[in-house]
Amino acid sequence: MDGGAFFGVIPKVMWSRKVDSDENNYVTAGLKLSAIRTGKQNVAGRNGNGQQVIERMVKIFGQPAKLFDNLSAGGISPEDIDVVITPTCTSSLGWNTVRHKDGRIVPAFPRAKYYVQEANGSMLDSLRS
Question: How far, in Å, CA of 3 to CA of 12, rounded?
Fold first, then answer.
């Protein structure tokens, strides 16, 4: 991401002590899924940008679409997720849906019950249509 956009009002002289940027002022940032095994359920949250990242963003930031590979490495399949808890910001919603082979948009975690912040519910409704 652009370091200035990522850190907002924090001056570069401060954040650059902790994080390196490249010649374009880009910094490496991870958008990672949190997966928790409670013993009774598998819970996922903050799912990241997903497959829907536009080509220009992939050129700038790389392809972050590795969620299923990362889950698999932990011994979890999308069907194993029982609950998804997520805010409705762009960096958290992307992996809640995936494009099926026939072109339809379907839930990424087909058995999961989704919980979303009530204050952002109208934004989620617009994504369903």
Answer: 8
CB 36 within 8 A of CB 42: yes
Q: Flag whether the pTM goes above 0.70.
A: no
* 99-116: pLDDT as tens digits: 888 988 888 899 999 887
Dihedrals phi, psi of 84, to nearest 5 degrees: -120, 125
SS3 61: helix
| DSSP H/E element including 115 | strand 113-116
Phi, psi values for residue 3, rounded to 5°: -60, -40
Tokens of 53: 């990242």
Q: Fill in the amino acid letter for 83.
A: V
Question: In angstroms, rounded to a whole number, what is the distance separating the alpha carbons of residues 75 and 10?
Answer: 39
Q: For 12-41, how does the pLDDT look when each residue is reduced to its tens digit (9 = 90+)?
A: 999 999 889 999 888 877 666 678 888 899
